[in-house]
Specification:
The complex is a heterodimer of chains A (117) and B (111). Chain A is an all-beta fold and 117 residues long. Helices cover 0% and strands 50% of the residues of chain A. The radius of gyration of chain A is 14 Å and the shape is globular. In chain B, β10 (92-93) and β11 (99-100) form a beta hairpin. Classes of the chains: A mainly beta (117), B mainly beta (111).
């Protein structure tokens, strides 16, 4: 199966600054997603990263706060803008293998642990 | 919309015992049921999945069973080992193709 990596693995940032997280998959994938997981909690979908077009955001998440890029089928970035302590969380990149919708598998990166002071 | 509930939220077993985690989903059109294991400090790892045309699937010490009529599916781990300690998730597929996660089950296997 494809290998997915994220950079950075963790970071400590000051409030008001922005952090860009990179996600790289070692093969071309159709669907990529960004999730957030607060400590001890479940995963919440932020957005679907669409190649060549704007990301599709879930309720409660907006482009100005979490701009996403997806320049090609193997790479995506998520930026956490104007950070506050409430943004402290684990951010996970994920991709879905090609196949009939509903039958394809989904894999996750190792996550980026963000702490905002 | 799609929804999934897991039970129990925490589970503690002795090494060698079996563990069972049950998930109930709301969308009767769901046809794909994966299980993920998340160890501390890592991303979720797909450990087993089942399609709706199959009632049971096994892979060594783990198995998943599906009851489409009752809209629930379960993860069975036999001969548990300390390395099985983790949080287990049973997400369901949303209308956009993404996975929707429940709250997870924290499994602790005591040596």
């Amino acid at each position: 199966s494809a290998v997915i990596s994220q950079k950075p693995s963790r970071d400590i940032c000051q409030r008001g600054t922005s952090l860009t997280i990179q996600c790289q998959v070692d093969s071309q994938v159709t669907m990529m997603f960004w999730y957030r997981q607060q400590p001890g909690q479940s995963l919440t979908l932020i957005a679907t990263a669409n190649q060549g077009s704007e990301a599709t955001y879930e309720s409660g998440f907006v482009i100005d706060k979490f701009p996403i890029s997806r320049p090609n089928l193997t790479f995506s970035t998520l930026t956490v803008s104007n950070m506050s302590p409430e943004d402290s969380s684990i951010y996970l990149c994920s991709f879905q293998t090609s196949g009939i919708k509903g039958a394809s598998e989904q894999f996750f990166g190792p996550g980026t642990r963000l702490t905002v002071l | 919309g799609e929804n999934v509930e897991q039970h129990p939220s925490t589970l503690s077993v002795q090494e060698g015992d079996s563990a069972v985690i049950k998930c109930t989903y709301s969308d009767s059109a769901s046809n794909y049921f994966p299980w993920y294991k998340q160890e501390l400090g890592k991303g979720p790892q797909l450990i087993i999945d089942i399609r709706s045309n199959v009632g049971e699937k096994k892979d060594q010490r783990i198995a998943v069973t599906l009851n489409k009529t009752a809209k629930h599916f379960s993860l069975h781990i036999t001969e548990t080992q300390p390395e099985d300690s983790a949080v287990y998730f049973c997400p369901v597929r949303g209308s956009q193709g993404n996975l929707i996660f429940g709250k997870g089950t924290k499994l602790s296997v005591k040596p």
